[in-house]
Design goal:
The structure holds 2 protein chains of 2 kinds.
Chain A (H helix, E strand, L loop, with lengths): L33 H30 L9 H36 L7 H20 L30 H29 L12 H33 L12 H35 L6 H15 L14 H13 L1 H15 L8 H24 L1 H7 L3 H31 L5 H27 L14 H31 L50 H10 L2
Helix pairs in contact in A: 1-2, 1-3, 1-14, 2-3, 2-4, 2-12, 3-4, 4-5, 5-6, 5-7, 6-7, 6-9, 6-10, 6-12, 7-9, 10-12, 10-13, 12-13, 13-14
Chain B lengths: L1 H9 L12 H29 L14 H25 L3 H28 L7 H31 L11 H26 L2
Helix pairs in contact in B: 2-5, 2-6, 3-4, 3-6, 4-5, 5-6
Classes of the chains: A mainly alpha, B mainly alpha.
Chain lengths: 563, 198
């Protein structure tokens, strides 16, 4: 790609929002602009990251010593349940919806999402169910305390006999979150299928779009199963039905099937867009085409299809027959194939590349490193004998935090830094970003690496007190957790102050290829409006003499002129 | 720079994408997703029934099929009737559309009434074991969909009286009709599962 020398005078704009009011009030209104909704999602989700992180530090504070001295064990049950629920449903899903909202329309050249009003509705459900969930701290009996998976019979106990209880509010919040996600998924899939720029066939889409499509199809196929299970759980809890009660002829294991039929694919709903982010960022920061573009694209759908038939690996130790264990061990291990394709493609992309260690690239490399580690422990856990030994120990906790935080959250941070200049029109402070990365990487490693040993030695999860022999691993983990807490300070500082008074960003600060980089920073209200570029090639032809769009120079000049 | 810009503009052809007409696509995607909830309930019903030593509550050997069978016939034929209503709309025969559309609504309402009569004559309740819960959950959840369908049809009927409402776009009618076929197909599966498989 030709390197564009932009005129620095052009980017000295007083108002970073050339179109639309430059005021903060639109972020608190029922705005139908996908870019506003995206930022609403991301900021809300980051707020809940802080709350979920606070709960995590309370948990680690309790676990720094073997006896349960900081909290009553009952309170501790509520803490980890709410920590898990908030991190998944109030942080990860909303923040990924936010990134998807910001990125999908500009990346495919669409002016907005297919259904802007539904989009706004999907966002505004987030504060509604968040408040419902947080209110459950204040009802008699406290919040839901049966873990984020809410297995019956524990979840349908209702010891105080009150109609409004923590568990009931939990189910309502999760169902509303489900409705929000389904609305979002319908919107994303329709937008991607119907509103791509001229010339952008499926095999010219950015990988991020491929992974979003794969992830959102997974939402559509899996989420209703959890909703069905949640409705039945709600009836059991509130109306005295016996779907999951043994004494009434029900079957508690049935709920586990409903739950994991969705909640295992849910991990892929979260990790697939992060794979997309990796695939977008590695070529940009190593100046090389993405290795095996078509294979990486198709592998996303391989993961989607396989992930629908692996859920029983969460239930190896709940009386599952042997043939089922073997079958699901096999399918689970098969997932390593498409995932391996991606990992090899990323490494081959980096190989011999001209690597720039910017903050987003550091987060990507850290995330990839952690993902390979978490992936290997994942294959270990898929093996039935290993899983029966370490299932429900800290080994599992360490494994899934390596995926959920050390991979997915790392990828999200990478994406936030990478696209921050594009959507705010401001550059962030590189130094603070690197401090954030260093603290996050050290904290995360210190937090979860030692817990693998605790788990292998047999420390059970979800307990407030434990045997003193596990103390050393827990002290290390707690120190790591507190470092992670500290890591949020440079991040918040960086985001707030860069957005307020950072240097103005040029349209394409990273010299990246992609439709969104042909737009001014920040993009105008309807992106390309009535003049959408015709796509000629996939957006990864770094160093190749293949043009990305027709009249590329025209759009580059236009994006510079808008300032 | 200016002249260079003008040259670039001269040969430039702006590209376009479709802005509307996504409603049906979105609605079909939604229905696929919605069918998974029913699918989950159906699987739950089957698993509980197969594994249960005693399926029906005490004193019950099965459920009467006659009333639901009449309901089935009504609902299935309404799916054909709604097709003709759509045909009339495509031929711009508004009154034909309104009348046939209204007949579909009546058939749907009769289905809900039949469901109500059946429920009120049953001797078991929501709390009567796994079967009681499943029976009311499945028929109730489906009934909610029928009621939603009738309300949506009412909305479309009212909309048809707005001037120029159907100039070129019958998205709403098409979507509701699609929804009605969906409710119909779900009922056929449900009927087979609960009433025929005893």
């Amino acid at each position: 790609m030709t390197i564009v020398n932009y005129d620095p005078r052009l980017v000295k704009s007083k108002n970073p929002y050339p179109k639309g009011p430059n005021d903060w009030k639109r972020f608190f209104s029922f705005n139908t602009d996908a870019k506003v909704i995206g930022i609403q999602y991301i900021v809300t989700a980051l707020f809940f990251l802080l709350i979920g992180g606070l709960l995590a530090m309370l948990i680690r504070g309790e676990l720094i010593t073997p006896p349960s001295d900081l909290f009553d064990p009952t309170v501790y049950n509520g803490l980890y349940t709410m920590h898990g629920t908030i991190m998944l449903f109030l942080f990860l899903f909303p923040i990924l919806s936010g990134l998807t909202n910001l990125l999908v329309p500009p990346m495919i050249g669409a002016p907005d999402m297919a259904f802007p009003k539904l989009n706004a509705l999907a966002f505004w459900l987030v504060p509604v169910f968040s408040i419902i969930l947080l209110l459950s701290f204040f009802v008699p009996g406290g919040p839901a305390s049966s873990g984020w998976w809410s297995y019956p019979p524990i979840s349908i106990q209702n010891p105080l006999g009150k109609i409004i209880n923590g568990e009931m509010l939990w189910i309502i919040a999760i169902s509303l979150s489900g409705i929000s996600s389904i609305i979002g998924a319908v919107n994303f899939v329709t937008t991607i299928i119907r509103m791509r720029a001229p010339g952008m066939g499926f095999f010219k889409m950015p990988i991020f779009i491929w992974t979003v499509l794969a992830a959102q199809l997974l939402q559509l196929l899996g989420l209703p199963a959890l909703t069905g299970g949640a409705i039945m759980l709600f009836f059991d809890l509130t109306f005295g039905t016996s779907f999951f009660r043994i004494e009434g002829g029900g079957d508690p294991v049935l709920f586990q099937h409903f739950f994991w039929f969705y909640s295992h694919p849910a991990v892929y709903v979260m990790v697939l867009p992060v794979f997309g982010i990796f695939s977008e960022l590695f070529p940009v920061y190593s100046r090389k085409p993405l290795f095996g573009y078509k294979f990486v694209a198709v592998a996303s759908f391989g993961i989607t299809i396989l992930s629908l038939v692996v859920w029983v690996h969460h239930m190896f130790y709940t009386g599952t027959p042997m043939w089922m264990r073997n079958l699901f061990m096999f399918t689970t291990m098969l997932i390593a194939v498409p995932t391996g394709v991606k990992v090899f493609a990323w490494i081959a992309t980096l190989w011999g590349g001209n690597i720039r260690l910017t903050t987003p690239m550091l987060f990507c490399l850290g995330g990839l490193f952690n993902f390979i580690f978490g992936g290997i422990t994942g294959v270990m856990l898929a093996t039935v004998p290993v899983d029966i030994h370490v299932g429900n120990t800290y080994f599992v906790v360490a494994h899934f935090h390596y995926i959920i935080f050390n991979t997915i959250a790392f990828g999200i941070f990478a994406a936030i830094y990478h696209w921050f200049p594009k959507f705010t029109g401001r550059m962030f402070y590189e130094g603070l970003g690197k401090v954030h990365f260093a603290l996050t990487f050290i904290g995360a490693t210190l937090n979860w690496l030692p817990l693998h040993w605790a788990g292998l030695l047999g420390m059970p999860r979800r307990v407030a007190s434990y045997d003193p022999e596990f103390a050393i691993w827990n002290v290390l983990a707690s120190i790591g957790a507190f470092i992670l807490g500290v890591a949020s300070i440079p991040f918040i500082l960086n985001m707030v102050s860069s957005w307020v008074r950072g240097k103005s960003a040029p349209p394409n600060p990273w010299k990246a290829i992609g439709l969104e980089w042909l737009l001014p920073s920040p993009p105008p209200h309807e992106n390309f409006e009535e003049d959408i570029p015709t796509v000629l090639n996939e957006p990864y032809c770094y160093g190749l003499d293949k043009p990305f769009v027709e009249d590329e120079q025209f759009y580059i000049e236009k994006s510079l002129k808008k300032h | 720079m200016l002249t260079e810009n003008q040259d670039l503009t001269l040969n430039h052809k702006p590209g376009h994408i479709k802005h509307d007409g996504h409603n049906i696509t979105g609605f079909i995607i939604f229905l696929c997703s919605e069918s998974i909830i029913f699918f989950a309930f159906f699987v739950g019903y089957s698993v509980l029934k197969i594994s249960a030593p005693v399926w029906y509550p005490e004193g019950i050997n099965g459920i009467d099929v006659k009333m639901p069978l009449i309901n089935t016939v009504i609902l299935v034929s309404s799916s054909f009737v709604i097709y003709f209503a759509e045909k009339f709309l495509h031929k711009k025969n508004l009154w034909g559309f309104r009348i046939i559309w209204f007949i579909t609504m009546l058939m749907g309402s009769y289905f809900v009434y039949g469901q109500y009569v059946e429920w009120s004559e049953l001797s078991f309740s929501l709390q009567s074991g796994a079967f009681g819960g499943m029976f009311y959950l499945l028929t109730g959840f489906h009934g909610l969909h029928v009621i939603t369908g009738i309300l949506l049809m009412g909305l479309m009927l009212l909309r048809s009286f707005l001037p120029d409402n159907y100039e070129g776009g019958e998205m709403g009618v098409e979507s509701v009709s699609l929804f009605w076929h969906f409710v119909d197909v779900i009922w056929i599966l449900l009927f087979g599962l609960i009433y025929l498989w005893q």
